[in-house]
Amino acid sequence: QVKLIESGGGLVQAGGSLRLSCAASERVFSIYPMAWFRQAPGKERESVVSIAWSGGGSPNYADSVKGRFTISRDNVRNTVYLQMNELKPEDTAVYYCAIDTPSARSYDVWGQGTQVTVFS
Predict the structure, then answer these.
(1) Alpha-carbon dihedral sign for residues 11, 17, 22, 23
(2) 79, 80, 84, 85 alpha-carbon torsion, rounded to 10°
(3) What is the rounded CA–CA span in Å between residue 36 and residue 81?
């Protein structure tokens, strides 16, 4: 089964930047929709950005990150990036990448997550 591994999280001051990576063990991002999610302590998981490159779609960003976060991919490395700029304390969460393969459950393959902590 395909594996996803996130990296790039860390501790950053408000206003700073981080770039998260989601590396896949197979070429999946040009086939299946993918998304970055995040979950803060005590809060529900939310979608940060989703995209289906196979369909030529545009990324769908959450309103809270529009203009600050940018998704991109490296097909050679089977890796998707999430560039996060102008970070705010409310961006603090565990960030996950996931893909949506044809199965009974949407977004059925997940990475282990990477912690992002933004301090003011």
Answers:
(1) negative
(2) 80
(3) 9
Which is nearest to 38 in space by CA: 119, 111, 103, 120? 111
- What whole-number distance in Å separates Cα of residue 6 and Cα of residue 10? 12
Query: Phi-psi category of 92—alpha, beta or left, where left has phi over 0 and alpha has psi -120 to 50?
Result: beta
Residues paired with residue 34 on neighbouring β-strands, in sequence order: 51, 99
54 phi and psi angles, rounded to 5 deg: -60, -30
pLDDT class of 11 with cuts at 50, 70, 90 = very high
**Pairwise CA distance, residues 40 & 27, whole Å:** 29
Find tokens 């769908």 and name the residue: 60
Give the pair of three-digit tokens for residue 70: 């940018």
Dump pLDDT digits (tens) for 81-116. Answer: 999 999 999 999 999 999 999 887 889 999 999 999
DSSP state letters, 42-79 = TS--EEEEEE-GGGTPPPEE-TTTTTTEEEEEETTTTE
